[in-house]
Amino acid sequence: MYLTSEAKTKLFQKHGATKSAKDTGSPESQVALFTFRINSINEHLKQFPKDHHSRQGLLKLVGKRKRLLTYLQQNDIERYRHLIADLGIRK
């Protein structure tokens, strides 16, 4: 598997709202996880450009991430700005 449980724990500790490994539901940790998965699928599509099923999954993930970022932007702009800068997402 491309994402082990240890890597997922580190991801949640680094980007979660409470900075704990069990903070899996906060928007920051969800966006970080989606960003990791999006980057992974992008690398896969560079190698296999005709894999349209993976492309469809990528577009769904991008949409989910966009909705979470919009929610975060409307509710807490400072957390949003910090997350965007930390993950290097263009918006």
Question: Which descriptors would you attach to this protein?
Answer:
91 residues; mainly alpha; 4 helices; 74% helix
Question: Helix and strand layout, with pairings?
Answer:
Blueprint: H1 5-15, H2 27-47, H3 52-75, H4 77-87
Helix pairs in contact: 1-2, 2-3, 3-4
Describe the structure.
- The chain is an all-alpha fold.
- It has 4 helices and no strands.
- The chain has helices at 5-15, 27-47, 52-75, 77-87.
- The longest helix has 24 residues, at 52-75.
- The termini are far apart.
- The mean pLDDT is 91.
Q: The biggest beta sheet, please?
A: none
Q: What structural category do the secondary elements indicate?
A: mainly alpha
DSSP strand count: 0
Q: Approximately how much helix is present in the residues?
A: over 70%
Q: N- to C-terminal separation? A: 29 Å
C-alpha Rg, in Å?
14 Å
Structure summarized in a few sentences:
The chain has 91 residues and is an all-alpha fold. Helix content is 74%, strand content 0%.
